[in-house]
Task: structure prediction
Amino acid sequence: MTFLTDRVARMLFALPFGIFGIIHFMMGSDMAGMVPEFMPGDIIWIYLTGVAFLAASICIVAQIQVKLTSLLLALMLLILALTVHLPGVLAENPQALPNLLKDIALAGGALFLAGHYKDEQGLKY
Result:
């Protein structure tokens, strides 16, 4: 059962972040308009986010600094939810609410994963 609840679950959680990272590089110019206006260098933020998603995916799969990675991933997702998706919800963009909820849910999953690592040597139980 540990195989399913640890390894497979970690892979399933990490996989979308790897794909999100690749998408940020493939569609960076299309996504640049999503960067809030108060942040200069829109395309740089898209690529930086892509790097962070890819790094998080790799670290979670390879069990490298999982606790720290998951905490930082949750922080990034919550920042994205508040700065990118919440303004869209308030502007009544119909695509913004599902993205806001997705990022909040993924941040919760990242926090849950971080909570299951006592240190960088493995799971609590």
Summary: Helices lie at 2-26, 28-31, 42-62, 66-90, 96-115.
